[in-house]
TrEMBL record:
Protein EC: 4.1.1.65
Official protein name in the record: phosphatidylserine decarboxylase
Pathway(s) of this molecule: Phospholipid metabolism; phosphatidylethanolamine biosynthesis; Lipid metabolism
Annotated organism of origin: Roseiconus nitratireducens
First-level EC class: lyase
GO function terms (MF aspect): phosphatidylserine decarboxylase activity
Alphabetized Pfam families for the sequence: PS_Dcarbxylase
Alphabetical keyword list: Decarboxylase, Lipid biosynthesis, Lipid metabolism, Lyase, Phospholipid biosynthesis, Phospholipid metabolism, Pyruvate, Zymogen
Signal sequence region: none
Amino acid sequence: MDEIVFFDRYRQQTCVEKVYGDKSLRWTYGSVGGKIALATVVKRLWFSRFYGWLMDRRSSREKIAPFIERYEIDADEFVRAPDQFENFNAFFYRRLKPQARPIDSDPTTVVFPADGRHLCIPDLSESDGLLVKGERLDLETLVADADLARHYARGSLLVSRLCPVDYHRFHFPVAGCPGPPRHVNGPLYSVNPIALRQNIQILATNRRVLTVLDTETIGRVLLLEIGATCVGGICQTYSAGLNVSKGDEKGYFRFGASSTIVIFEPGRIRFDDDLLVQSQQKRELYAHVGDHMGTIL
């Protein structure tokens, strides 16, 4: 299988992703034995909960220092020092210092909801696929609501893929009033491109949470958090019905790679040029939460 290449907004260059658990991932999605294991064990909720339980054990603290070194994570950004985390999961959903992720203050912009590798679709009705040409997301399956799917059929969409090495808290991309989270059951496949290139519908069928955000500036926005293999949980920290500011925390993922999706009503946003260019090449753009991703129309 090919290397996973993304474009780094800050370095202004393409980079090859260091994939956590690369050998296991490629075996699971690239061999007969792996696909059998995937169908019978790996995609099951109990498997991910068991792995999450292991990451909650005190002994998992031993993984933190080697992980930071292996993936060159900047510990100076952490609110807590590496040796203060009680287990690996606590390190995984760590908080960062506010200055590490400043929120773009321009009232006309929308910001990325998470650290990660991002792809956009300006018009869902004209999309030729995210990672594979012609492979479109099934919007009705994704939102599990036929009326919502019709309303957003020509809308704009952003997918943000978080790797295990990333900051794993997700935030509101724009100010507004969020409704209650709606949980949609499903399996837990990997959201790594190695898996998505085989089946993009993983994003639409995995366990997920959907929240409707009512805004004064950009209409009604759909926010989704997508579960994945070894994600121990999708945890919401916001309060439904209370207004939030752009960049406020919405929640966090426990251990594992995961994704968020933001869907805008038609004609409401113009994505940034670098995000558009990379997405047209089916290459993800790496950017931080709070950084601008588009302009409100």
